[in-house]
Design goal:
Chain lengths: 1164, 300
């Protein structure tokens, strides 16, 4: 009996269109995501069929399946009720238990069959012809089976049980979808509050399980991600187990509610008696067709109903909650930095929080509004009213847009309240209005139109929701799927707001694209208006006739206008400006690398003098540069050719050497070759004369310049001036992209022993030069550059600034221009200055303090500062966080200027960043590393070290321990994105140079002592500062360090710098016995260590580790500390302390590369 | 006068719902009778502009004296139409007053004062005045039907199309509605589609009988039920005797009354010696038409 019932239910489910719609949509999306390299968290270097990528996709798509499961679960739960068969079914000889089991299992099986679409999509991606061979590993069916059983099944069971129960309790599919929205909306909330502090709470509560999975695999290397199948342990097991259990409880609850439902009969409020109304019927009136009146009335009527619906209010509440929680988390420092709620910050939070709710509003209400009258049966009355279809269609659209607007306005109000509560000012209403209602809103209004249109064309509301979801996803990932032109992706370019520059570079493009797409929407509305669902005819009957009815003067006029607008846009984006698809840009870079990377034409040549004049026109985003670069042969050999690179986006007006033009040119790539009749001999010079223009014609599809802007221009020599040789930044680094564009593996940097490579710096042909520049700008702006400002004047309505270096500086000099305020102080004869936007002055004093502390430490420990001034210049938020250039440090406004600086006793990211960048004035600007492996040890690692030490001196040991914790986490969590790690002394990898390097140098300090290490560094600095050839390598630094290393530490320091080792120290158990002597602790410890050898094998280490054991009380105060010689493997120690301890900690200073710090602690 | 000329409608599934239907309907109440699937609802929906005929034409001489063609004039037709479908639903959370006001505006009653008067008068007319602030979605079946009647009467339509209007009404309300329809029939064309022959007999001046999408009979109700007609025969039989007449080709109805069966036959000749000629009722005419077209299964 039960088997027959289940078979019947499954057969019924298999005939539901929603099941197959879900199957196709989920399968299609996961397929596109896999072959289109859309990264849902797996990482772009991971194989698409790796156990890690399969697991991440399965988790994410099991969540997405939650949108389809209500149709399966709720329909199964409600199908008797909806067709009033309750009484028939429940009076048959079948037990309630059997009936429920069949219904529930039918729904669960259907959900799993639907989910097979995901597995099929992944298999198609693996075996289909579209996957890149370089991103495929071996096929392992167990990856799929395990991911489905352990990751997807709990989610599917939970969703089926929940929606089955809600449907039974409410008898309403709408209410069920409301719960779907609530469950779905929790994801961005978890995302916004997820951090190291909250992960233990978030990981179990997240219904998807993705946070637990990502937490568990956070430190996995790329190799692990590609080969290691996850284990059901730790937070992942807890999460999946918890939601499996919740699913089972909900299932049991569903069974309890599974009873026949009686009709809801209400007693009349009072008896109805005939009572003659004393008013008379009005006289017959001429009926009218007030189109605008109807539209307004229909709009108000529908808006009132929809905006007061539970689903909408719920979404607004969820959105506000998301916004407030996310904002609060960021204000408190969820990403390690406490922010202030500036306009830029709040706009970013609104964007993050709202997009999810907005899509849900669009998807749900677009279909619900159009199908509302049909769903309720009111169409039988409404369709015979003389109300025209256009009013109904436009009314629905206006209502949906208004619902979005209400939500957006609510977000603005919330943002303003947050700002006012935090005393943040001044409130920029215009920025909020444009940023939220236009910049963010227009794309949503366009999608809203699409949603209404899809619902109009489809007879089924839920099918419309599914199709709209698919369209939104396609639009979101259009770029990844190769569609980048906004004339094709139904969207306008989104502007990035900055406090310095507003929305400036994007406004024109946004306006034109908005006109284009709204006209397109008008065309679609008019053409498909005859398809509006009305009456009894199937919508698509007489489709041809309806279509041609829609092609009328209105639609044709809109179409013509749309074409005209599109043509104008195309003229701007593709004719006036060069439009290049990302693939084409990469192909250009690949071509440049093929043609010029191995060029020997400029070897031995360096720019040694620059005499330039630059005119900046920030408001029109234009510039002119002209001048002469004196190029010297610093090698011993004669050079008879020179390769010059000029930014191909510039208009090159002149490029000559001694009056001669290049003998060959590739202007599309920006390369020009000079071949000399008379070779340039050693120590001889030639003069390169140039004139370039940075022009702005019309607007671009994307990639509007964010360097030359209305306020906050930041240019480097590569932007405006010719440079020598191949432009190394053009190299494609991604392995798969290189393969796709026919390039071999990225060539390694020259070996440390390559003497020839030591003739040039790690920046290529950028050596040292004498710098003289006259830079003019608009009169309200101020220019900052390297060298000394020797003269300023105004002429022809423009402000002029003249800079001259007193000695050779690194060629990476900046050209900065903005409407800046200046704050400064003199420290030991050096002017320390901060140039900032007038509203961004809150942290300026703290910045000057950080500059003073850093300058004090570095000059004292390493050597003198070479410039007369050190300037920190604020740049707009779309620039790199911070950059150190000769005498100038740029800092993005959202990286320090918006930080909530805690107090004088605590460090901040701004402090650390400035200390790091200022250290580069020694380690990058004075000592420039050679162009060999390990150059970053001499730049980034030493800058990290310097910053750590300044923090330690200023704020104490606790502050630096916090920083070490952060660096350690960043180091291990970055390993999943790189193929094979280099040892520190050879590495060019960021995570090694910055994060591992910081820990390693701190460990060396703990072994050698800070003073001793700084003395060695000072000696090294003196030896190599201001060199113009024979640049130093990391090997030289290592030799310097080894020279001061006592024998007992040699092995460890050697391993830290030259090997790849990592450890896992843990406290296996600890017991406390109280006695007269105090509290005796018996502690079982484990010391495990590994090393990667040259063939990437992991070899277990068998070495002792010198560290500390810290015993702390409940408040975290250290009550006892003991140096430990941690034996390899397991060991036991006994410690007696006088005070009652609360917990123990090994390596409290975070000085070891310990991959799992969680097991270093033991709570007693 | 409403004129339907050769109106045909075939659904996308191939079902011929209306087959060259031609009718002339004068002011007053017009009854539309027919078995299930006869095409009544198709005809009503076509008149209500909810679907277009594939061929044929519908036109009506309106109050202004002009003739309004249905084809291409949906909006004008909707102005003069009052339609009460057999089943309809309403939005949740909206009172009768507000919903009727909404529909009145959509109907084209722009003047808010006039609209208010109209809405209140209609709510009173259908006996919903006291419940005007209650949600229509919470109404009982009968009350909801009365709301439907009220909305069909908005703006004093010249053509009223009502499909099974008294379903769910109690006898008192049914009477009231009949009176109302009769009153409306004085000024408008009222087309009443129903299964209840008695309703049509009581109310309508003219009727049409539809079957298989065709008009099988139409005319003045008095003519059709002429008491002098000699076409209907009555036979009272015991249970045992009935079997002899079960297969009689002219049998049109069989009813059990107080232990005996009353059988009715049509035709000029007596089906049995004991048969008695009776004046025809509308029901007899209806069944006769169906039987003549072999659409009747009296044994059932």
């Amino acid at each position: 009996m039960l088997t027959s019932l289940i078979r019947f239910e499954l057969h019924w489910q298999l005939r539901q269109a929603s099941l197959w719609a879900g199957f196709v949509v989920l399968g299609g999306l996961v397929f596109l995501a896999s072959v289109g390299n859309i990264d849902f968290g797996a990482g772009d270097q991971v194989n698409i069929n790796s156990p890690y990528a399969i697991a991440v996709n399965v988790l994410m798509f099991a969540a997405l399946a939650g949108f389809f499961i209500p149709m399966l679960a709720a329909n199964a739960a409600l199908k008797d009720h909806s067709v009033r068969m309750d009484e028939l079914v429940f009076t048959k000889a079948v037990s309630r238990r059997q009936l429920f089991t069949a219904r529930y299992l039918g729904a669960l099986l259907a959900a799993n069959i639907m989910f097979c679409g995901v597995l099929l999509g992944l298999l198609l991606a693996e075996f289909g012809p579209f996957a890149e061979p370089g991103r495929l590993g071996d096929f392992h069916p167990e990856y799929y089976v395990k991911a489905w059983l352990f990751l997807a099944l709990p989610s599917l069971l939970f969703a089926t049980s929940l929606y089955f129960l809600v449907a039974r309790l409410t008898s309403s599919l709408s209410a069920t979808y409301f719960v779907v929205l609530l469950v779905t909306a929790m994801f961005p909330i978890w995302q916004s509050v997820y951090s190291a502090d909250t992960k233990d709470l978030v990981a179990p509560l997240d219904t998807i399980g993705i946070f637990a999975f990502l937490d568990m695999t956070r430190y996995w290397s790329l190799e692990q991600r590609n080969l290691e199948l996850f284990e059901m342990t730790g937070p992942l097991a807890l999460n999946r187990g918890l939601w499996l259990l919740v699913g089972a409880v909900l299932m049991a609850s569903s069974f309890i509610c599974f009873k026949p439902r009686m009709p809801n009969i209400q007693r009349p409020k009072k008896s109805v008696r005939f009572q003659r109304f004393d008013g008379a019927r009005p006289p017959l009136q001429q009926l009218k067709r007030p189109i605008m009146g109807w539209l307004f009335h229909f709009y108000c009527f529908e808006l009132r109903s929809s905006a007061s619906s539970l689903v909408y209010i719920g979404l607004i509440v969820v959105f506000c909650l998301n916004l407030l929680l996310g904002t609060n988390a960021h204000l408190l420092g969820v990403d390690g930095v406490a922010h202030r709620p500036t306009t830029q910050f709040m706009l970013a939070r609104i964007n993050e929080s709202f997009v999810f709710s907005a899509y849900l509003i669009i998807i749900y209400f677009g279909a619900a509004l159009v199908h509302r009258s049909k769903d309720s049966g009111f169409d039988a009355l409404l369709d015979v009213q003389p109300l025209v279809n256009a009013v109904r269609l436009l009314g629905h659209y206006a209502v949906l847009v208004s619902m979005l607007l209400i939500a957006l306005l609510v977000s603005i109000v919330v943002a303003l309240c947050v700002q006012l509560l935090h005393g943040e000012g001044p409130v920029d209403l215009l920025a909020f209005g444009y940023g939220v209602l236009v910049n963010r809103g227009v794309n949503l209004y366009l999608l809203a139109g699409l949603s209404v249109l899809v619902a109009t064309l489809l007879p089924n509301k839920y099918l419309a929701m599914v199709i709209t979801t698919g369209l939104i996803l396609l639009q979101q990932y259009a770029g990844e799927l190769g569609v980048e032109h906004h004339l094709l992706d139904f969207s306008i370019p989104t502007a990035v707001y900055t406090g310095l520059n507003g929305f400036h570079p994007y406004l024109q493009a946004q306006g034109w694209f908005a006109v284009f797409w709204f006209l397109a929407l008008a065309v679609l509305f008019r053409v498909f208006l005859p398809f509006y669902p009305r009456g009894n005819e199937p919508q698509w009957r007489f489709a041809k006739r309806k279509f041609f009815a829609g092609v009328n003067p209105v639609s044709i006029s809109c179409f013509v206008l749309m074409l005209a607008t599109g043509t104008y846009i195309y003229f701007n984006t593709n004719i006036l400006n060069q439009y290049s698809h990302t693939d084409a840009l990469l192909a250009n870079r690949a071509q440049a690398e093929r043609l010029f990377a191995s060029s020997q034409h400029s070897v031995g040549l360096q720019v040694t003098d620059a005499d330039i004049a630059i005119d900046l026109y920030p408001s029109s985003q234009e510039a002119k540069a002209r001048g002469v670069l004196h190029i010297s042969n610093v090698s011993a050999e004669s050079v008879n050719s020179l390769l010059v690179r000029v930014n191909p986006a510039l208009k090159l007006q002149a490029l000559t050497i001694d009056g001669k033009v290049p003998s060959s040119a590739t202007p599309t790539l920006g390369y020009y070759l000079f071949e000399f009749d008379n070779a340039i001999d050693a120590n001889h010079q030639v003069a390169l004369h140039f004139t370039t223009q940075w022009l702005r014609d019309g607007f671009k599809n994307h990639g509007e310049s964010t360097r030359l802007v209305n306020n906050g221009t930041f240019l480097t020599p590569f932007d405006l001036l010719p440079s020598l040789g191949f432009f190394n930044a053009e190299r494609i680094h991604d392995k798969h992209l290189r393969q796709r564009h026919g390039l071999g593996p990225l060539p390694p940097l020259p070996d440390l022993d390559d003497k020839a490579a030591q003739a040039s710096t790690y920046l290529g042909n950028l050596g040292r030069l004498n710098y003289h520049a006259v830079i003019s700008t608009e009169p309200n702006q101020r220019v900052v550059s390297s060298g000394e400002l020797i003269n300023t004047w105004e002429a022809n309505g423009r402000a002029h600034f003249e800079f001259l270096s007193s000695h050779p500086i690194g060629m990476m000099f900046p050209v900065l221009s903005g409407d800046y305020q200046k704050a400064s102080r003199i420290w030991q004869g050096v002017e320390l200055a901060v140039y900032f936007h007038e509203d961004h002055g809150t942290n300026v004093d703290a910045m000057l303090n950080a500059m003073t502390a850093s300058m004090q430490y570095y000059t004292e420990q390493w050597g003198s500062y070479p410039h007369a001034s050190l300037s920190v210049v604020e740049v707009p938020g779309y620039q790199a966080n911070a950059m150190s250039l000769p005498g100038v440090i740029t800092m993005a406004e959202n990286h320090g200027f918006d930080e909530a600086i805690p107090s004088k006793q605590k460090s901040s990211r701004m402090f650390f960043t400035l200390a790091h960048e200022i250290a580069h004035q020694w380690w990058a600007n004075q000592v420039i590393a050679a162009n060999t492996q390990g150059a970053r040890l001499l730049t980034e690692t030493l800058a990290q070290y310097g910053a750590m030490r300044v923090v330690q001196r200023t704020f104490g040991e606790d502050a630096v321990v916090d920083l070490r914790g952060y660096e350690l986490d960043q180091y291990f969590s970055s390993r999943g994105h790189v193929e094979s790690e280099h040892p520190l002394f050879r590495s060019q990898q960021d995570h090694v140079a910055y994060h591992k390097g910081a820990i390693v140098l701190e460990r060396i300090v703990s072994l050698l002592g800070e003073e001793k290490l700084n003395m060695a560094l000072a000696e090294f600095f003196v030896q190599h500062r201001h060199k113009i050839s024979d640049y130093p390598t990391s090997k030289a630094l290592l030799a310097q360090i080894y020279s001061i290393t006592p024998p007992q530490h040699k092995q460890e320091i050697h391993a830290l710098l030259e090997q790849r080792q990592w450890f896992d120290f843990s406290i296996d158990s600890a017991e406390m016995v109280e006695s007269k002597a105090g509290f005796t602790l018996h502690i079982d410890l484990v010391n495990q260590g590994w090393m990667s050898n040259a063939s990437e094998q992991h070899i277990k280490l068998n070495q002792e580790a010198l560290t500390n054991l810290s015993v702390r009380d409940e408040q975290g105060t250290e009550i006892y500390v003991q140096a430990l010689k941690l034996a390899p493997g397991e060991s036991t120690i006994e410690v007696t302390v006088s005070q009652k301890p609360a917990y123990l900690l090994i390596d409290p200073g975070i000085l070891w590369l310990d991959i799992n710090r969680q097991n270093n602690q033991w709570r007693l | 006068m409403l004129q339907l000329h050769e109106v045909s409608k075939t659904y996308s599934g191939g079902v011929l719902a209306l087959n060259h239907v031609s009718l002339q309907i004068e002011q007053g109440l017009f009854g539309l009778l027919g078995p299930n699937g006869a095409g009544k609802s198709s005809l009503m929906r076509t008149l209500a502009t909810l679907q277009q005929p594939d061929s044929g034409s519908i036109s009506m001489r309106v109050g202004s004296g002009e003739t309004l063609q249905w084809q291409g004039n949906d909006q004008q037709v909707r102005h003069l139409l009052g339609y009460l479908p057999q089943q309809f639903g309403v939005y949740r959370g909206i009172s009768a007053l507000r919903l009727l006001d909404h529909l009145a505006l959509l109907k084209g009653i722009v003047d808010s004062k006039i609209r208010k008067m109209e809405v209140e008068a209609l709510l009173d007319m259908v006996n919903l005045w006291e419940r005007r602030h209650d949600q229509v979605a919470e109404f009982s079946g009968g009350m909801k039907q009365r709301f439907g009647i009220a909305q069909a009467l908005l703006a004093q339509p010249e053509l009223i199309v009502v499909d099974e209007p008294t379903a769910g009404l109690d006898p008192l309300e049914r009477n009231r509605f009949h009176n109302l329809l009769a009153e409306l029939g004085q000024q408008a064309i009222v087309i009443l589609s129903t299964h209840i022959v008695e309703d049509v007999a009581d109310l309508c001046d003219q009727i049409a009988i539809l079957a298989n999408g065709k008009v099988m009979a139409q005319g003045d109700i008095d003519t059709l039920t002429d008491p002098n007609a000699t076409t209907i025969w009555q036979l009272i039989l015991s249970r045992e005797e009935v079997a002899l007449f079960e297969e009689h080709p002219r049998l049109i109805s069989k009813q059990l009354k107080r232990g005996q069966f009353e059988l009715r036959f049509y035709g000029q000749h007596s089906p049995a010696p004991q048969a008695k000629q009776v004046p025809p009722a509308l029901e007899d005419i209806y069944f006769t038409v169906l039987a003549q077209h072999q659409l009747l299964q009296p044994s059932s």
